[in-house]
Amino acid sequence: MSRRKRIYEGSGKVLFEGPEPGTLVQYFKDETAADTKTGAKAGVIAGKGVLNNRISEHLMSRLTEIGVPTHFMRRLNMREQLVRELEIIPIQVVVRNLAAGSLAERFSLTEGTPLPRSIVEYYYKSPTGPHPLVTEEHITAFGWASPPDMDEIVPMALRVNDFLSGLFLGIGLRLVDVRLEFGRLWDNEQMGIVLADEISPDNCRLWDLKTNEKLDKDRFRQNLGRVEEAYQEVARRLGILPEGGPGDMPGPEVMQ
Question: pLDDT of 57-75, one tens digit each?
Fold first, then answer.
């Protein structure tokens, strides 16, 4: 079992120092939390890390094919992938296509109500507390991202949403919303905005097109049961369910 320096750990992933300068190893965990900001209702979804690794690899690769720059380089094994090291922008960009979650609560909308158009929201990734809803004025005033950064991030987020909506529609799923993260990739003096983190049922709301059955992390948040099966169903429809099921492998030892 390898020993690696841990760079960052969240509710669903660990980032380790990569084998080469400018790279990181992204390890996908089975652990999860209903509220990633506070860790409330923590639990384990068996095989989630393996499935999310495969799903994110597949979707990031498809986005790269259409010209969306991502941090993904290659999958290393069942639970790990090699990614580019970025200067992460501390903003979560949420693109919403239907009313669900906090949007439905804030505006007393029936869950599943179609929105007039896709709505883009921003949440500040506070390192010490809740992730509050913020405006572009907050983002630029506090220096989390510059106006030129936002000029790249917003069209890229909408393009990702449009592409994924079509891709999921083709396999009988509705993309209700997606939460995206971005970072700055430096190449000498040149900087580009790059899609970071992951794309999986952990950060997408995915509903069956015919039945509206939820096939994402909301099954865990809302105690709906059959959480593992929902993640497996998304992978199956994408044609990437590992042969023999999710499988498993031990995580690396951490070197502090």
Answer: 999 999 999 999 999 999 9
